[in-house]
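Notebook entry, cofactor series.
This is the third protein in the set we're modelling with a bound small molecule. For this one the ligand is zinc ion. I'm keeping the input format identical across the series so the outputs can be compared line by line later. Sequence and SMILES below, as received.
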Amino acid sequence: MVPYIVDHIPKTTPYNRRPGYSMTPEYITIHSTGNPTSTARNERAWLTNPNNNVTASWHIVVDEKEAIEAIPLNEVAWHAGDGGNGTGNRKSIGIEICESGDRQKTLQNAAELVAKLLKERGWGVDKLRRHYDWSGKICPRIFHDNGKWTGWKQFKEAVQKELFGGDNMTQDKNQPSDWAKEAWEWAKQQGLLDGTRPKDNLTRQELAVVLKRLAEKK
Ligand SMILES: [Zn+2]
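Returned structure with ligand:
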């Protein structure tokens, strides 16, 4: 994970950009900034720039080197374009992905950030929304190409990878991941698995053996 900086805008920020309404989030909404040069710090600075006269805000912005939280995740921000009482605005955490810098790095940082937010809440990728889903705006535009949302699908896959496989690189391959420990021990005790290679892929023939063992237990 890149550094996560908490730098909240004041509640007195003009144009009601931090209304202070409490929020119990149910979704995470993804945006891209629409600006090919602005960094996370630039985006954060814009929220409190005296020349900014729009009622628009977000919770977290991420770029190639850091993530910045501008509004607490239990407060409303105006980012979804679905109105003052819209579900997107009232019940989702708004994440802005910067379009500047190294795109691959930025997307990896965003995937890790989003996976962390999902994990903390016990959520899956089904909780992810595009700005487009709330209001029809072509956003996050970096995931939109020739009328297709191919990049969006790929991003969700990258997040999924972080959720369930992202620890492959940093953890012992011979130890199950924390989320899998209980099930892994159970499968060993039941004699369904032999207890080796917890992070290897399962072949079709191995699955057949496990299914046979399971069927024959009864
Ligand atoms: Zn957007």
